[in-house]
Amino acid sequence: MGGSNGAPKDPNRTVIHPLTDLDPITRYSCPMCGRYIIRQQAKSLAQWEKYGPPAFLDSYNVAPTNPVPIIRAHNGRIENLTVRWGLIPSFAHGEPPKFSTINARIETLTSAPTYRGAWERGQRCLQLASGFYEWHLDETGRKAPYLITLADQSLFSFAALWDRSIQDDGSAIESCVHVTLPANALLADIHNAGAHPGRMPAILREQDRDTWLRGSVAEARSVLLPYPADSMLAYEVSIKVNSVKNNSPDLIQPVGEVQGQRGFAF
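^ that's the sequence the OP posted. Answer follows.
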């Protein structure tokens, strides 16, 4: 099918759909690891030099469907690019699923149709982040957001999968999803509510990045482990993060007691 000017569509052209607004459910409800931050400061980028400069994004409130930077090994080389957060599987003709695809459970990577193809084809990538938000339900019934960062990696990566889906007009959309697994002690305490309590994103140790990108299926599976709780920092932040319309440095300022190890200053 041609474009509006009658010219044929380029099947190799990748289209990202950064939604200018989210539906009310996504905007105000917060799925497991449904928001995160990314701060690409010079001191953080130094440890990523071997992969080349990552696609740039500086955000205090990354939300589902946003374009996000990933790193992947594709066609024999490392690629830095921006894709949609929320996987659209290759068989979907570019149409986003009616359910959330921002998290892929480790237990169903080989069985869930949405993720199985990308997993079996080895379409693994590094989804860059500097921290992520989780919500804690306290004894009064109040749901409070917490920011979790790492003490040993100021810019880290979620273990993620990517896929490419061709739309009816011939253009392609590329997207990603990160893996989740049972939480460590710190996250189990914080993430105690919602549809999937007691979960956390799969975060890669620096030495495991290449294994995730280039290793065999068995090798990649072996690095999917809960990140050590004693290498994390967590603290309560403002409820302003609940709305994706808010995106400013004050979102990551502590409003409560800091838990865990000393973290990086943002």
